[in-house]
Amino acid sequence: MRQDVKDIVNICRAFYIIFHFLGFLLFLLTDNQAVSSTFSSIFFWGLKLLAGILFFIAGKNPGYITKIELKSCNELQDTDWKIPNQHFCEVCKILQPYRSRHCFDCEECISKFDHHCFWLGSCVGELNHFRFAFYLVLECFSLTWAVYFCFHGTNYTEIAFYVILGIICASFTMLTGGLGIFHVYLISIGATTWEIMRRKSISYLKPYPMNFQPFSKGFCQNWKDAITVREATLWALPRPLVVYPFNWFDNEYWSCC
To answer: How confident is the prediction for the chain on average, in pLDDT?
Structure first.
C-alpha cells in the first residue's frame, strides 16, 4: 500500500475514534436516555460496539490474488462460443480472473473487485463484501438511534451540543444508510459497484444484455456465497443465450432463487 494511502487511512481512523470518544463523553456527562439502564440504552451501546469493531475489521483481506494455484479461467469455460480474453496485469504479472481488477492504492489485484474504500484503507472485494455491507447497516442503525437520543429526553441546558452532534450523526446516517442499501442490493443481484458503473466498458460483460447479471446465482445463493466464501473464486462466464426467457421471477433485473 502506498504511503499517502496509509496516511489517509490513519486520518480517517483518528477522526472515527475522536468523534466517537467526544460523543461518548457528551452522553456520559449529561442527562439523557443513552446512559440509562434501560434495555434500549444497553442495546444501543452493544450495537455501537459491534459496529466499531466491524469498522476496523471490515477491510481485512478483500481477496488478494496471488500466482499460487492461479490458472486460466478458460479451462472452466464452455468452448463453443467466443470467450472474452482475460486481462494480464503488468504490475502483479498475473492473468487476472474475470471480475478481478488491480487496485493502485492497495497495489494488489483484488478478486471480485467492488471499490477501494479510503475510510477502511482497503478494497472491498469478494472476501469482505458481506462484512462491509453488514457494517454499513449496523452503523446506520446505531447512528439513527444516536440521533434519537440527541433530541429525546436530554438535558436541554446542553441543547447546543446535542444539536451539533445530532446533525453530524444524521449526516452520517444518510451516508451509511444509502451505501448500505446499495450494497445489500449488489449482493442480492450478484454484482459489484465496478461492474454496475463500468458496465459498457468491461469486456467480459459485453456478450450479455444490459442489466443482466451473468454471475448471479439467485437471491438466496448470492447471499449464501457472500456470507460463507473463504477463498477467491475463479469465475466462469455462462454461454450467452439467443433469447433470454425473462419472466416475473427471473429477469434482467432480479432472480428469486
So the answer is: 84
